[in-house]
């Protein structure tokens, strides 16, 4: 496998030598990858079951599709060369790579940005907040700039409060038009958001909480407001100033590898450690979703199932840990098993 995605912390491309395909499963209580298959027992001890009281894991819908297409067999015998014509046999994702910045380090300020607007940052933020709260952390969520308040859509903070119920949810500035925050301030004749006022607010919340999730607006380099010097600032600047880590919420479908690589590269050159969460994993994944998953796995820390934003908040909170890896307070610690149980 080759990929243009940079390896976190190095900026180097993760080539075939760097893929985790041959790494052992990282958790003793997970079944070894080679011994897993359709009848390989429970998915994960702490995964929610699909008994109507919880939401299936992202793999569940995929499971049906892949079983129908015979992909399970290919998964079990992963070392067998895949025939060029076997388009219905997607390559199984490999086990997670061992990367710096694992559990315990994702505390304090964590920026949730995305490869674009509308990629599922709000739902992913809610899921991370719910999982972290479930792990016993005190969690705050901050939305520095909410735009589009005149559209009648619920504000992101409202959605997160309803779904996850973190200890604190705050919106620092709101603007009526659905534009980037700096442009929205300009057209409304309102004061643009000032970088250091946001930094101060977040630091104050970090003193009172274990984890402060900061949901950006749109993607990483969207102009958020103005510095005291009059220069525009972005959430990338915010992450650097706060020494924060970043979660990049990405789409599952075609185009995501380029958008994700661009975003990871921009974070890497600023020295911001980052992980990816897929914002909306389809119930019936196609080949492109599986190949994208394979390429994103070295950086992946979660995948939120499509439809998660519409479910009952109690079910959302019970299910969230099953969508995220331990880095983000979840229990999804073996992508290989996740995919091979198809
Ligand atoms: N996993 C999901 N389940 C259900 N709906 C989703 C999911 N992910 C995203 N959506 C829906 O897709 C739309 C865009 O998602 P969302 O508002 O979370 O994007 P965003 O990245 O937060 O955008 P913004 O830049 O405006 O903050 C919303 O209508 C949301 O409800
Ligand atoms: Mg949002």
TrEMBL record:
Residue ranges, annotated region (Disordered): 1-107
Its biological purpose: Catalyzes a mechanistically unusual reaction, the ATP-dependent insertion of CO2 between the N7 and N8 nitrogen atoms of 7,8-diaminopelargonic acid (DAPA, also called 7,8-diammoniononanoate) to form a ureido ring.
Quaternary organization: Homodimer.
Binding annotation for ATP: 118-123, 156, 215-218, 305-307
Pathway of action: Cofactor biosynthesis; biotin biosynthesis; biotin from 7,8-diaminononanoate: step 1/2
NCBIfam families per UniProt: bioD
Source species of the chain: Catenuloplanes atrovinosus
The enzyme's E.C. designation: 6.3.3.3
Family matches, as SUPFAM superfamilies: P-loop containing nucleoside triphosphate hydrolases
GO biological process, one term: biotin biosynthetic process
Major subcellular location class: cytoplasm
Localization (cell): Cytoplasm
Pfam family, one: AAA_26
Binding-site residues, substrate: 147
Protein name: ATP-dependent dethiobiotin synthetase BioD
Family per similarity comment: Belongs to the dethiobiotin synthetase family.
Any one GO MF annotation of this record: ATP binding
Transmembrane segment boundaries: none
